[in-house]
Each structure stands twice: as C-alpha cells, then as structure tokens.
C-alpha cells in the first residue's frame, strides 16, 4: 500500500484512550533505609555484614541511604532490616513515571503510539543501539533526516569499496543489502519500506517529524521488495538468512502471499533458529484464510486495529492463526522525499510497531530469547473479543509497557486458558490398516494424537486431557497447543483441564475415519454489511448449534472456512460433510461449495475449484456429503490447512446461512 500524503488525514484519531493498569515498578534489588542518626558515618554494609549489602549512597543531610541487596533476596532482606532496632524505616524502591513526552513535531498526533502505551514504555526503555530490526521491505531512504541517525551500521564493512570486507558473502552491505538488485545500496525505490522503518525507529526528540516505537534501536535496510511492490521469495529467502546470520534481533515483514513456499519456510525457520524474531503482517484481505509468511510457525502474525475503535479494522485478516494486533489506520510515519505521512495503513503498518515493541524488550532484557520476547508480547496483550468474530486474534492488541513489565519480571503468570480448536475432534483411527501384524505392534495407531490448540497451556501449569472420563496421555505441549495421544476412541466427552479447572470440552463422535471441523469461519467481505457468528464449536458436530452468515446486502452469502491441522497418519479419501439450512432466501438460490487449490500458479497463486453446485436447501436442515478430488493431500498446505468457500446466490435481501456442521471426514 502506498503512503498517503500528509494532507490526507484519513479519520479522527482515537479519543479518550483508557490506559491499562500498570504493575508497580518495584526495583528488584534496591531498598531505601533510614538508620539511627548516631550511625550516619557507618555504612549499612558494615552494620549488617551478614546480609551481603552494597551501600549505593548515604545522605547524612536527611539520614537516608540506598542499598543493593543480593538477587532474589529483596523481601527477605527487607524483613531482616525491619527487625533491626537500629533501623528506623525501610522502603521499597518504587519507580515514578515521568509521563514521557517527545518533542517531535507530529508527536501530539501520534495516537497509535499512545494506543499501544509506547510512551509509558519509554520511561523504562527506548531501545538500545545494539538491538537491530531488519526492515524486510522495499528498502529505506538512507538519508531521511528522521532515520539517518538510527540506521544500522555493519561495523565490519567499508561502504562503496567493492569489497566484501567482513567476508559475509555480501559486498558493501554497510546499512543492509539489496537482495532484489543484488548490491549494497538498499535505498527505497517504492516508499513502503521507509514508512515501515519510521514506525520502528524514527529518531525521537530531534524536534522534527515523528518518533518510532523503539527510537533508541537501529533499523537495517534489507531490501527484499522490488520497486513494483512485489516481494519474490528469491529475494525474501536470502533476506531471512542474512538477518539470522548477522544476529539481528528482529525482522519486520510487511508483505503477504497465499503461496506457501517450502524454500521460504526453510529460510524463516533458519532465521528463528539463529535467535531472530520474525514479526509478520497478517495481510489485508478481510479473510480467515491463512497467509504466508505470517502463518509459518516461526512468525508472530500481526493483525490491525482501527483508529476510532480498539477493534479489528475491516481489512485485517483474522482467525486462529493471527497472534496479536496493533493499530493499522491513520499512522504517522516517515516517507520518501524526506517527508512524512499521516495516512499509512494496513497490517503493513501494524507489523513494524510490534517489531518496535520486540526491540524494546530485547533491549531491556539482554540475552532474552526470541521465544521469551514473543511470549512476553503475547501474554501482555489487551484481549480483543468482538462480535461477530469472537477471538479474531489469539492474544489481543499489543501493549508495549505491559510487555516490558512482563519481560522484566514485574508481572508473571498465565493468561486465561482457552481452547480454539482440536484436530481431529472426532472419529477413530484406521484400525484395519494398522493392526498388529504386517506393521507390528504399536505402529501408526499408537502415534495418533489430537492437537488441542489454544492459549495458556505453558508450564508450570498442569494440563490434563480426558476422553469419556479416562485420562489421555499428553505426548507434548507448547504454550499454545497440547498433543493428546489417542489409544482408544469411544464416543464421549473430551475435557481439557488446566490446574484441575475445566477449560473447555467437546463431544468426541465415533468414526469411521477421523473428523476435522472448520476451525475458522467468516464472511468474505465485511464492508458490505455481511456478518458471521460462531466458530468450530458450532461446526464440529450436528447438535443444532449453528454458525451463521448473512448476505452482503445484495443477495449473496459468501462464507469462508479454514480446517486446520489435518495431519492424519493416512489420508486416502477426504469427504466434506456440510449440514445447513437457510432462512430468507429468494427464488432459485444456487449454493456453490469450493475448495482452494493453492498449488496452481495463477494469480493470486491459487484458485477455487468447485466441489458442489446445486439448488440451496430451503426445506429445513440437510447434509451435503461430497468427496474431495483424488489425491486430497494436494489441497492442504504444509500445516494441514484446507480452505473452503460457500457462495449462495439469489439469497434475497435477508438471507442467512445456518451451518450446523462443516467438517472433513478422513479415511
Ligand atoms: Ca559484507
Ligand atoms: Ca565493502
Ligand atoms: Ca523525529
Ligand atoms: Ca453444530
């Protein structure tokens, strides 16, 4: 998306932003102590040599001193001093807040920075110069007056001498590299990258322009997007590898595609393995269908909130694959021509702000891993739970200040546990194919597991999963998923408990085969007034609990569904089961059910193939059962996601789709 000139102020900024409550900032190692005045000349470290204190200062003018206590001993030392008759008073060292206000010209208008509490975070951390965010974009205007001071400098490289001075394989990569044109000049020939860079690290307190979220950190120009605005994997892939090899803490990736590239996937996995945190825009298609690279496992996918409400902005992609959100409309940032805009928008704008938050965390907690920084950002989000999308983003809108508190240990604990979906959510293993005998005992059948995806499952919480009252062995778990082994599969209730408390349950239905329900559902274009309600919990079984989708005001209902984590031991035939009814249809309604074929190379990279096209049922609920084409594995991405779309024409002005069940049966 091209930056909009500054004169085009898109909308009034968000008014009356309510700050989230802050945790008290108690210094973990310091106490203030008042001792009997007769002892003014004696250091407390000597008075109480048993406590291992270091006296930082002693002001006889007032009688107070500051001491540093051994790590982890704050409360113990405080109690000990309070018991000492010579000690008259002991105080914790609780930080005040200067309510930091930068002097940058457009600061008073930068509503999006206060929305994510960046200004509160700056009281603690503005970013270290040693922490670098790679802007994987169309380049950066390298001499932009509000960016030039914060450009990363590759100290081992001499610019413009035609030599690879640091021997990293790239000639003259002084401020980054141009992976499109393969040279050492990553100047921005488009504009998008300069806008993204400013949101991360525009210079603060230089009186001009704007301020970035991490104005003390540096941005590296990794030009992977062409002047045309296209981001080809041939440029993106070496960019990811370079970021990992050069030890960059964060990469900010404001681009998306529905093309799942195995090569790009390998590159982002390598980048993560080197300690870099990839922050990636979720995309602007108003869709629940996963996009790449945002939905690769290593990426922190960022959706966008609006500028008048702290809610999803209409174009933001959404669903259980989107991790966090940040403002994505009416953003103030730098642009080409040493200029500024008030109208940068998109998940493109949301992403670099989260990358900036990540830079603040890496700065405040040296040595923190990418996983720890990601977890701190996620777990400190302000939850966003909006009808009709429900949890359109797994964790919520980022809060820079709360994230800093989290990484610094001022706050801890787990977020409220929630189950987003389970896969499979019913059925039975293919016993006949994998019985004892040819394959031997304990073959594939014993490897079968149900993946329960949600939030709040991390240690030290205890997690228990049971089926029909019998515990299932937990094969493994991450903070956002649990693998429960399936050794017996009667029908019954599956229950997920955290620390003994029930998180969620669902009914396991008998086979044949394994059942995978739609994990995300939505209408395709919410700007037209169409709306959806419900999620996998309405769709996993026939129970009269319905997912609904309304028409777009012009008589057409378009509903999209994703079925995720379809990774059974065997995948021979896949059948779609779709039980639904309609209200308010006009005459002759046609219902078309399509499957996304992302393997074709037509733009935009994939195409929809028709599974079924027939008169829509109007006489009550009925079930469509249709097989996916031969070789059904070719229609899912590497994460096991199938994409489905239901389009019902002649729906009338008030048509409503009521879907009781939408699932895949895998044999
Ligand atoms: Ca070099
Ligand atoms: Ca050189
Ligand atoms: Ca500035
Ligand atoms: Ca149902």
* Ligands present: calcium ion
* Share of helical residues: 10-25%
State the separation between the terminal residues, measured CA to CA. Answer: 44 Å
Structural class: alpha+beta
Largest sheet: 8 strands, parallel
Percent of residues in beta strands? 25-35%
How many runs of DSSP E, i.e. beta strands? 34
* Morphology call: globular
Overall mean pLDDT: 90
Which radius of gyration do the C-alpha atoms yield?
Answer: 28 Å
Contiguous runs where pLDDT drops below 50 for at least 5 residues: 1-16, 432-446
Q: What's the tally of helices?
A: 12
The side-by-side strand order for the widest beta sheet comes to 6-7-5-8-9-10-11-14
Describe this entry's structure for a reader.
This protein has twelve helices and 34 strands. It is α+β, with helices and mostly antiparallel strands and 667 residues long. The strands form seven sheets. It has an eight-stranded parallel β-sheet, sandwiched between helices. Strands 16, 24, 26, 27, 29, 32 and 34 form a seven-stranded antiparallel β-sheet that branches. A hairpin with a 4-residue loop joins strand 2 (54-59) and strand 3. The chain starts with 25 loop residues before the first strand and ends with a strand. One calcium ion is lined by residues 157-158, 161, 163, 165, 171-172. One calcium ion (CA) is lined by residues 104, 146, 202-204, 206, 208-211.
